[in-house]
Amino acid sequence: MSDQPVLATPDYWEEACRHLSRKDRVLKRLIPQFGDACLQSRGDAFTTLARSIVGQQISVKAAQTVWDRFAKLPRRMNPASVLKLKVDDMQAAGLSARKIEYLVDLALHFDSGAIHVDAWKTMGDEEIIAELIGIRGIGRWTAEMFLIFHLMRPNVLPLDDIGLINGISRNYFSGEAVSRSDAREVAAAWEPYRSVATWYIWRSLDPLPVEY
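The structure corresponding to this sequence follows.
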């Protein structure tokens, strides 16, 4: 597997945009503002999840710096190579003791076959989430981001995501506070493309596309 990121875009995107523009007045206005931009998946599953652990609770800039240092340590960024790393070297790259434990647990899950990467194509979203949250340091939000950004599943609604809740508040409720049930009600019109709608709601807050 080459280290160059391979960008993939979902084949359902155009159909999703047409569907959402018909079903939702806010998205009908938002979607044309962002031209051809759309969701893109890069890298492999292990690298994507490792990056999400490294980036927890620190700024995007700090996360990139630590990731760049960490990524130089293993010969290749794969589970077996990460398991051979020395804790001291990982700490020197800027990783906390807790994040090192999480990365090792992630590598063990992949290396032992506890994670069924090849079966994900046929598994439902909730089944994959259940597998991922069995890894230390990965909660539901991270698993949902993985479903959206890596597996490009079309119908994920990450109700724990502050950006989504803020975006729904601003676009649908004139900035008033929004409950999870309010958000779920708005998103009912987005089925079966809730991931795509979520992506455009994020864009309405920050025009730069998010990538994981």
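The longest helix spans residues 97-112.
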